[in-house]
Amino acid sequence: MLRKSLLSLLLSASVLSTACSDSDDEQKPAPAVLIIDREAVDFGELEVGQTSPEHLFTVRNASPSAVESVSVKVEGSGFTIVANTCERFLDAGMECEVRVRFSPRLAGPSEARLKVEGAPDVDSAVLKGLGVGYVEVRSLPGAGVHVVAEGEGWSCGEPCRVAVRKAQVTLRTAPAGFPTWGGDCTVVAGGGCSLVIDGTKVVSLEELESFLRWEVRRSSHPLSVAVSAGGDIHVLEVGQLLRFSSTGQLRWSVPLSGGVKMAQDGAGNAYVVDSFGRVTRYSASGQAPWTSSEAVENPSWHQLAVSANGHVYVLLNLGNHELASQLKLIALSPQGVERWSLLFDEGQFNYASGLAVNAQGEVYLSGSVHNRDATSGESVFVKSYVRKYSAEGAIVWETEDSWNLFAVNAEGAASILFPNHQSTGGFTQRWIGADGVTRWTATVPSGPGLVTLQTFSPSGALLIGGHEFSAVGTEIGRGWFSAMNLTTRAPGPVTYVEGSTGLGGPTRISDLALTPTGHVVVTGGFSAIRDQDGGFIRVYDGRVLTGVP
Questions:
Q1: From residue 419, how far is each of 74, 416, 443 by CA, in Å?
Q2: Are 241 and 254 in contact (CB under 8 A)?
Q3: Using CA atoms, how far apart are residues 103 and 77, in angstroms rounded to an integer?
């Protein structure tokens, strides 16, 4: 209707112009108008490599005079003019025809424009179509193995043929592992199979080597893990300390009363602090040569750090969270004798968020101070800090910082992470040198989920881990871990820690460590709530950290 109205208006304007003019010399010719009869045509779905039926378009000269140079063309890919009578001259009020076909070269949506030129204003029609390709998975290595289309919502647990409506698709495996692909695959980072869908693509999954080297299931969530220079693995659980071989064989276990934190020295001795602040040393054979004597009145979650040469530092929580709380840092010799102590009473409530020690035995402490408003009863922030103390307890430096995830490497540099608790994940990382000066701050805007822990290995690798957000954005999903690339200041390849069924589900990671051979030890449990549905100790092949099979 709009195009017909335009034609009537132009013809009326021509008549009025003729009637009102005093002479032919004063008349101005009406501008040429060329109109395509349709504004858009959807050619629908068509298999890649096939050709659609022709669609007819009519071009009308809607001006009162002939147009000398009519031309029609297609701008965009996938559509072709197969017949055309619109060749230069088109008399007033006359029509010409164009026939167009759709021939998709790639799967996915295609859009182009059919344009008619020869008038001051170019008219056009939108051409749309959807290319469809196919992926044929012809073989899989065994039961329980699936080929999964990344981000596409489909998978195959047996040979299948699936329609694909995207130009490119990446296939991965479930469970994750080191796959050997055959067929039309281009192997990409993380062992994925990348396909450009320019026709039917044939794929075979010939072999799948598991990321997981071994696993030990536990009845509860382990609390922390440490690996000796010889490869043995200490695991702290509620009520016991265990030592495993590098292949997952249990060497020994000892019962504990309220162990809350475990650390290890360079000789492979384990140290456990209980909820009352007593520290016990355990030899490589599981014997306990000593237990420290100082204890607190109220049970709490205390901090523990041990240097490579066996100097022990325990940070005790004193008081309670209702009236007032203080911190007490105690240094113990390798024989369990107190060397010195410091009391932190800088406000009504003194909280610790991290304790670490470097290779030289220097101590790092992060914490914060709060008061309570006398009228409202609400907590009032006073300050937060990161401090470094010498091996003898003298303060070396202090920097104000928000307390959060905190780790120190052997050289004394500190990594502080500030997680983004939104569903997009991500975090901000601050790197503080051994001299207390901030070297850099970097932000990772989004990530695989919430970061909940970070830890340095003896080799200097920084591992981070956490869990996904569920679909509703509040509950936890799969666990994950990665090694930070401290050059690019971004996480490396991410490994997801699946639930007990191996197909997603909530997984809480409690700790991470590296073995001397570079494999990743992961402890945690199969539920959002601690000690529901059991726990695990897993060792993942170290190749997951680089994504190189």
A1: 50, 10, 10
A2: yes
A3: 9
Residue 215 neighbours by CB under 8 Å, 6+ apart: 248, 536, 537, 538, 539
Task: For residue 12, give every residue at least 6 positions away whose Cβ sits within 8 Å of its Cβ, in sequence order, or none.
Answer: none
- Local confidence band at 276 (pLDDT 50, 70, 90 cut-offs): very high
Question: To 5 degrees, how large is the angle CA 342–CA 314–CA 441?
Answer: 85
- Contact (Cβ atoms closer than 8 angstroms) between residue 295 and residue 277: yes
DSSP code per residue over 318-339: EEETTTEEEEEEEEE-TTS-EE
Please answer whether residues 387 and 376 qualify as being in contact, where contact means their C-beta atoms are separated by less than 8 angstroms.
no
Q: How far apart are CA 254 and CA 243, in angstroms?
A: 9
Q: Is 372 exposed, middle or buried (0-12, 13-18, 19+ CB in 10 A)?
A: middle
The two three-digit tokens of residue 314, written as one number:
């325990």
Domain with CATH 2.130.10.10 in the chain: 257-398
Q: Write the pLDDT tens digit of every residue in 339-376.
A: 999 999 999 999 998 999 998 899 999 999 999 998 88
- Domain 257-398: which CATH class? mainly beta
Q: Beta strand 168-174 with 146-149: parallel, antiparallel or unpaired?
A: antiparallel
CB 124 within 8 A of CB 98: no
Q: Which CATH number fits domain 2-130: 2.60.40.10, 1.10.10.10, 1.20.5.440, 1.10.760.10?
A: 2.60.40.10
